[in-house]
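Troubleshooting log. The previous structure file for this entry was overwritten by mistake, so regenerating from the original sequence record. Sequence copied from the archived sheet and checked twice against the printout by T.R.
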Amino acid sequence: MADVNEMFSKVTGEQSFFNPNAKKKEFTPFAKGEYFGHITEVDSKVLDVREGKYKARLYSFIVEASEENKDKDFKFENIKGELEDTKGDVYVGKKFRGKLWRFLEPQKGDKFESNSDGNKAYLTFCKNIGKECPIEVRTIDGEDIEVQLLPNLTTEDFLGQPIIAFVDKGRPFTNKNGEKRQYFDCKFCKKWEGGKKRTISSGGKNEIPF
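Regenerated output below.
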């Protein structure tokens, strides 16, 4: 009977080796600053805010740093706490998480309150990706006021969008192992003038407005 290991090796064709001369990839800490990027993933859910005082839709998305960062200058904090210069090529392909809130308006029978002034960041984001926010006159508390109507963004509206992500350290937290962690996140997005939209598959969910 043939040796079991020999038979398995012939079936899989697997190979392994150790190269003592292989160059170790150096890790460059992330830098605070603006990154050219594209949105590659997005998810959404409706949440109660401040114990149900408000209701909002939270969009969670991923920004991937693009090739256009290659020749940009960044400064990262090294292990000594000193700022060190680097070119942006080390960040190409890196990913950052971002969040966007859209506060909802209460309808008849709803018990939560309006927080329309909390939608400034959402309005700015819509404008930055070219979505129209038409102005209408609405009667609020007996007074006619001009408001901007905010669209319900879909998966397709996010995926592949070129943006400039302002990246900085996020809020520190403690994980399930009791370890303190703090990651670099996309704090907000700016318009990328001249940026080209990327084609990104959404797994057939483009038509779903969350």
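The CA atoms of residues 16 and 187 lie 42 Å apart. Archived copy saved in two places this time.
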